Automatic annotation (TrEMBL):
It comes from Limulus polyphemus (Atlantic horseshoe crab). PANTHER family: GLYCOSYLTRANSFERASE-LIKE PROTEIN GNT13-RELATED, GLYCOSYLTRANSFERASE-RELATED. InterPro entries: Nucleotide-diphossugar_trans, Xyl/GlcA_transferase. The keyword Ubl conjugation does not apply. It is found in: Membrane. Keywords: Glycoprotein, Membrane, Signal-anchor, Transmembrane, Transmembrane helix. This is LARGE xylosyl- and glucuronyltransferase 2-like isoform X3.
Length: 426
């Protein structure tokens, strides 16, 4: 699933009984899922056992282009027994404009009730624009409704509390020894910036390039899955990692930890690894990045120059504009040494770089406001927010910042949720 934008607004349709409606709309692509969600948790005392769901939809004339193509709504229903049910409400591609459909759900056991419902409006395998309107989720009457006048406030539970202590992922941690360099002042590390990242062992080759322009400490966590491996193979991997770490010539204030678990590589515990890397960092500031992110030369000096010129509080998150190559760079292609050089590569006729993920997920970094960054040498505030915004950031290390949600594995939404929590924390 990519991070596409959904538009909200008012749309009017030429029908006898329909005037104007509030709508959700998006552009579908045959090879992508477009989806938007709403989670509804039901209070335990309600004992809800059924509901009616209705929805109106309209679309451009288009044909299904892949097997399993669909658009409409899915509802994931969690029951008190621990079971899950999926309710589907699907539309055909040749339907009249603003077709209304509805479906019912009822528990099959008298002692079973609905704990929550997650509604997903989506399209997959089709190409064109779709519109959804009048999304209605109505509870079916029960004894609870007969005893009082009921509103949605009486039915819907509030958001859950902190999740940070609710989930534990079992891992084994081994610390890698960093060779010491002469002349390093160990007391200076508190005023430094640590590059915080994680990586799987099979991708360690990218570190040689991505850390080549970084002059500060690194907090690195390397993941090895135990599943399906023999103990002697795991020991060989640790020796290999030690050799590769030595070749990186890391800053003496760096920390490297090898994390292994019974999960497979497909179940990559990305946010667990990120949190370990954050906790082991010892400097005042943290640059939270991915392993293939390469900083510009002189990053630290420019960052501390900004800190001296302007005042910031402990909750300030400094956004780092990110770019990507349009073609795979060669070894001889050096990283731009200055902002001027970067802009030359960006705006030339045969552009060599572009803003990060602008083609596949434009919302991921849109709020960075690249055009403003091109024209100024001063820091500026990002006033708006999107739940698809996932920039690379520098934070001051303190207990006020939430950690990453460790329930996320593999790829998708793991960093977005952290940025969202930081935003909500102020």
């Amino acid at each position: 699933m990519d991070h596409t934008r959904w538009e909200t607004g008012i749309k009017c349709f030429n029908q006898k009984q329909t005037l104007c409606s509030k709508v959700l709309s998006t552009s579908c692509k045959p090879d992508r899922i477009r989806a938007i969600y709403q989670h509804v948790a039901i209070k335990k005392e309600v004992k809800l056992q059924g509901f009616n769901f209705s929805l109106q939809a309209a679309s451009d004339p288009f044909d299904s282009q892949v097997s399993g193509a669909t658009f409409g709504a899915y509802i994931l229903v969690k029951l008190s027994s621990g079971r899950y049910n999926t309710v589907r409400l699907e539309f055909s591609t040749d339907m009249p404009p603003m077709t209304l459909k509805s479906t019912d759900f009822q528990t099959t056991k008298d002692d079973e009730s609905i704990i929550s419902m997650t509604v997903m409006l989506l399209c997959f395998g089709v190409s064109g624009n779709i519109v959804f309107a009048n999304v209605m989720l109505l509870p079916k009457p029960s004894a609870f409704f007969q005893e009082r006048k009921v509103t949605s406030v009486d039915l819907i539970d509030s958001c859950p509390g902190s999740h940070q202590t609710s989930y534990k992922f079992r891992v084994k941690k081994d610390h890698i020894v960093i060779p010491k360099k002469q002349g390093h002042n160990t007391n200076s590390k508190q005023k430094d910036v640590t590059l915080v990242t994680q990586i799987s062992m099979d991708r360690m080759g990218v570190l040689q390039r991505s850390l080549s322009s970084w002059e500060g400490p690194v907090s690195l966590v390397i993941y090895i899955p135990w599943k399906g491996q023999k103990e002697n193979n795991i020991e060989w991997q640790r020796l290999y990692i030690q050799k590769k770490v030595n070749e990186l010539s890391l800053h003496p204030g760096s920390s490297v930890t090898v994390v292994s678990s019974l999960a497979s590589l497909e179940d990559y515990p990305i946010n667990t690894l990120r949190n370990i890397a954050i906790k082991q960092a010892q400097s005042k500031y943290l640059l939270l990045t991915d392993a293939d992110f390469q900083t510009s030369p002189g990053f630290k000096e420019r960052f501390f120059a900004v800190l001296k010129q302007y005042s910031f509080n402990q909750k300030t998150a400094f956004i780092v504009p990110a770019f990507e190559y349009l073609e795979q760079p060669q070894k001889q292609d050096g990283i731009p040494e200055s902002k001027y050089e970067l802009l030359q590569l960006l705006h030339r006729e045969d552009a060599f770089i572009q803003p990060f993920r602008i083609s596949e997920s434009s919302e991921s970094h849109r709020l960075t406001d690249y055009w403003k960054w091109y024209r100024t040498d001063k820091p500026y505030k990002v006033h708006t927010f999107s739940d698809k915004f996932e920039p690379y950031i520098v934070l001051e290390k303190n207990d006020k910042h939430p950690l990453y949600d460790e329930r996320f594995f593999g790829y998708g939404m793991n960093k977005v949720t952290h940025i969202t929590e930081l935003y909500l924390k102020g």
